[in-house]
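Q: Got a minute? One more chain.
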Amino acid sequence: MAKSFRRESGQRLHQSPLRATYTFSAGVIISLLLLGVKTTKADEDPKEEIIRITKEMLHAIDHRDFNTYRNMTVNYLSCFEPQTKGQLVEGLDFHKYFFDRFPISDGPTTIVNPRVHLFGTDVACIGYVRLRQRMVGSTAEVLQTQETRVWQKINGQWKLIHFHRSDS
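A: Always. Here it is, folded:
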Protein backbone atom coordinates (compact mmCIF):
# COMPACT_ATOMS: atom_id res chain seq x y z
CA MET A 1 0.00 0.00 0.00
CA ALA A 2 1.34 3.44 -0.97
CA LYS A 3 1.94 6.07 1.67
CA SER A 4 1.39 9.76 1.03
CA PHE A 5 3.34 12.63 2.50
CA ARG A 6 2.70 16.36 2.29
CA ARG A 7 5.29 19.09 1.97
CA GLU A 8 4.74 22.57 3.31
CA SER A 9 3.69 23.62 -0.18
CA GLY A 10 0.94 21.03 -0.05
CA GLN A 11 2.46 19.02 -2.89
CA ARG A 12 1.84 15.35 -2.28
CA LEU A 13 4.71 12.92 -2.40
CA HIS A 14 4.04 9.20 -2.76
CA GLN A 15 6.06 6.29 -1.51
CA SER A 16 5.36 2.83 -2.84
CA PRO A 17 6.81 -0.33 -1.36
CA LEU A 18 9.20 -0.54 -4.34
CA ARG A 19 10.16 3.06 -4.96
CA ALA A 20 10.09 6.40 -3.18
CA THR A 21 9.54 9.58 -5.18
CA TYR A 22 10.71 12.88 -3.76
CA THR A 23 10.44 16.34 -5.22
CA PHE A 24 13.06 18.97 -4.41
CA SER A 25 13.09 22.64 -5.27
CA ALA A 26 15.87 24.05 -7.45
CA GLY A 27 17.24 25.84 -4.37
CA VAL A 28 17.63 22.58 -2.47
CA ILE A 29 19.36 20.92 -5.42
CA ILE A 30 21.75 23.88 -5.85
CA SER A 31 22.50 23.80 -2.11
CA LEU A 32 23.27 20.08 -2.28
CA LEU A 33 25.56 20.64 -5.26
CA LEU A 34 27.39 23.46 -3.50
CA LEU A 35 27.91 21.19 -0.50
CA GLY A 36 29.40 18.54 -2.78
CA VAL A 37 26.52 16.08 -2.47
CA LYS A 38 26.45 13.95 -5.62
CA THR A 39 23.90 11.61 -7.11
CA THR A 40 24.64 8.09 -6.00
CA LYS A 41 25.65 5.69 -8.73
CA ALA A 42 22.64 3.53 -7.91
CA ASP A 43 20.38 6.45 -8.88
CA GLU A 44 22.30 7.39 -12.02
CA ASP A 45 21.21 6.20 -15.45
CA PRO A 46 23.93 3.79 -16.71
CA LYS A 47 24.30 5.66 -20.00
CA GLU A 48 24.65 8.99 -18.20
CA GLU A 49 27.21 7.41 -15.88
CA ILE A 50 29.33 6.34 -18.88
CA ILE A 51 29.14 9.86 -20.33
CA ARG A 52 30.13 11.33 -16.94
CA ILE A 53 33.13 9.04 -16.42
CA THR A 54 34.25 9.63 -20.00
CA LYS A 55 34.23 13.37 -19.31
CA GLU A 56 36.22 12.73 -16.11
CA MET A 57 38.74 10.73 -18.15
CA LEU A 58 39.10 13.52 -20.72
CA HIS A 59 39.53 16.06 -17.92
CA ALA A 60 42.36 13.95 -16.47
CA ILE A 61 43.98 13.80 -19.92
CA ASP A 62 43.63 17.54 -20.53
CA HIS A 63 45.09 18.34 -17.10
CA ARG A 64 47.86 15.72 -17.37
CA ASP A 65 46.60 13.94 -14.24
CA PHE A 66 48.20 10.54 -14.83
CA ASN A 67 47.21 9.19 -11.39
CA THR A 68 43.51 9.68 -12.15
CA TYR A 69 44.01 8.31 -15.67
CA ARG A 70 45.78 5.21 -14.31
CA ASN A 71 43.02 4.65 -11.71
CA MET A 72 40.36 4.81 -14.43
CA THR A 73 42.08 2.30 -16.73
CA VAL A 74 43.33 -1.27 -16.66
CA ASN A 75 47.07 -1.88 -16.86
CA TYR A 76 46.58 -3.74 -20.13
CA LEU A 77 44.72 -0.84 -21.81
CA SER A 78 44.77 -1.22 -25.59
CA CYS A 79 44.32 1.47 -28.20
CA PHE A 80 44.55 2.64 -31.76
CA GLU A 81 45.24 6.36 -32.16
CA PRO A 82 47.12 8.58 -34.62
CA GLN A 83 50.25 8.46 -32.45
CA THR A 84 50.40 4.63 -32.71
CA LYS A 85 50.77 4.86 -36.51
CA GLY A 86 48.20 2.11 -37.10
CA GLN A 87 49.63 -0.25 -34.49
CA LEU A 88 47.64 -1.68 -31.58
CA VAL A 89 49.39 -0.49 -28.41
CA GLU A 90 48.88 -2.17 -25.03
CA GLY A 91 49.77 -0.95 -21.57
CA LEU A 92 50.17 2.49 -20.00
CA ASP A 93 53.82 3.28 -20.73
CA PHE A 94 53.00 4.67 -24.19
CA HIS A 95 50.47 7.10 -22.67
CA LYS A 96 52.65 8.10 -19.70
CA TYR A 97 55.24 9.43 -22.14
CA PHE A 98 52.72 12.02 -23.43
CA PHE A 99 51.44 12.88 -19.94
CA ASP A 100 55.00 13.65 -18.85
CA ARG A 101 56.02 15.75 -21.86
CA PHE A 102 53.05 17.78 -23.03
CA PRO A 103 51.66 20.88 -21.29
CA ILE A 104 48.25 21.05 -19.67
CA SER A 105 45.53 21.88 -22.18
CA ASP A 106 44.70 25.59 -22.13
CA GLY A 107 41.13 25.20 -23.36
CA PRO A 108 37.98 23.20 -22.74
CA THR A 109 37.03 19.84 -24.20
CA THR A 110 33.47 19.19 -25.35
CA ILE A 111 31.87 15.84 -26.14
CA VAL A 112 29.46 16.13 -29.07
CA ASN A 113 26.70 13.65 -29.89
CA PRO A 114 27.68 10.84 -27.48
CA ARG A 115 26.19 7.40 -28.15
CA VAL A 116 26.38 4.79 -25.41
CA HIS A 117 25.78 1.10 -26.00
CA LEU A 118 25.37 -1.15 -22.96
CA PHE A 119 26.30 -4.82 -23.17
CA GLY A 120 24.72 -6.20 -20.02
CA THR A 121 25.50 -4.48 -16.74
CA ASP A 122 29.29 -4.57 -16.86
CA VAL A 123 30.40 -3.56 -20.37
CA ALA A 124 29.69 -0.33 -22.23
CA CYS A 125 30.93 1.39 -25.36
CA ILE A 126 30.71 5.11 -26.04
CA GLY A 127 31.34 6.87 -29.33
CA TYR A 128 31.46 10.65 -29.72
CA VAL A 129 33.15 13.57 -31.40
CA ARG A 130 35.61 15.38 -29.17
CA LEU A 131 36.17 19.09 -29.68
CA ARG A 132 39.18 20.69 -28.01
CA GLN A 133 39.48 24.46 -27.99
CA ARG A 134 42.83 26.18 -27.60
CA MET A 135 44.60 29.41 -28.35
CA VAL A 136 47.49 29.49 -30.80
CA GLY A 137 48.97 32.95 -30.34
CA SER A 138 45.96 35.24 -30.62
CA THR A 139 43.94 32.82 -32.77
CA ALA A 140 41.33 30.40 -31.41
CA GLU A 141 41.63 26.89 -32.80
CA VAL A 142 39.30 23.89 -32.50
CA LEU A 143 40.67 20.38 -32.84
CA GLN A 144 38.27 17.55 -33.65
CA THR A 145 38.70 13.82 -33.11
CA GLN A 146 36.34 10.87 -33.32
CA GLU A 147 36.65 8.58 -30.31
CA THR A 148 35.31 5.24 -29.15
CA ARG A 149 35.94 4.00 -25.62
CA VAL A 150 35.12 0.59 -24.17
CA TRP A 151 34.45 0.45 -20.43
CA GLN A 152 34.18 -2.63 -18.22
CA LYS A 153 32.93 -2.71 -14.65
CA ILE A 154 35.60 -4.45 -12.59
CA ASN A 155 35.06 -4.90 -8.84
CA GLY A 156 32.20 -2.40 -8.98
CA GLN A 157 34.20 0.33 -10.74
CA TRP A 158 34.17 1.29 -14.43
CA LYS A 159 37.60 0.89 -16.03
CA LEU A 160 38.66 1.85 -19.54
CA ILE A 161 39.89 -1.28 -21.35
CA HIS A 162 40.21 -0.06 -24.98
CA PHE A 163 39.86 3.09 -27.06
CA HIS A 164 40.18 4.14 -30.66
CA ARG A 165 40.80 7.74 -31.64
CA SER A 166 40.89 9.15 -35.17
CA ASP A 167 41.81 12.68 -36.22
CA SER A 168 39.62 14.44 -38.75
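A: The mean pLDDT is 81.
Q: Perfect, thanks.
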